[in-house]
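Field reference: sequence -> structure
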Amino acid sequence: MKTKKTMLKLANEYIRHKQGLGFKFESPAFHIRSYAKYADENFPGMPLLVCTGMRIGEVVALKEKDVDLESGIITIKQFKKMPKRLIPVSDSVKIKLAEYRDAQQKLLSFSKTDAFFKTADGGAVPYPSFNNSWRKILRKAGINNGHSTPRAHDLRHTFACNHLLRAYKENRDIDDAIYMLSVYLGHTVIQGTYWYLSATSEILEQCVKRVEKSLSPKKKEVNRENKQK
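Structure field:
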């Protein structure tokens, strides 16, 4: 029976032989470093917040089975007393998530969790990692205003405002649009949704246009009556 030392010697000789034939053998540490570098530069968690308006806690809690890249549907389990809900994602988001998953399967030889987002040691990505990624983005963008620096959670507010702006531009019923947004964001009461809506200059402009349009027939009628006098 071969000893452990003999087996190691034979294994090393085999590796040297294969390397001489052009084969590459990389250590687990190499793969861990490669994945850590890839995840740091291509972490799709932040774009997911931008495109879906999800809470950071919801993204962190995602399991592999919750992300269906075939249908492009993300399942959010009960969160803050809100029942399970489905989040559709765009093709561009599906591609980024698929690339991230493929990198995991290629570079991570082990996993400690079934979380969709994993660290280089196979564990689940913790909540603070999102804030760290956000700070890196702000530094690259040259944004550093001290206490008024935007938070990662503010991306959820931006998503809500963009939804309302799009509803105005598409001439949709605003009450219906806000109700749909409330369900999508996972709010149990619609008052929670109003907290995320801000009077941005773009939204105010659309409000003025809608009011002017609604008053236009009355204005014409008043002008007609004045001319008759």
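Note: The first strand starts at residue 67 and ends at 68.
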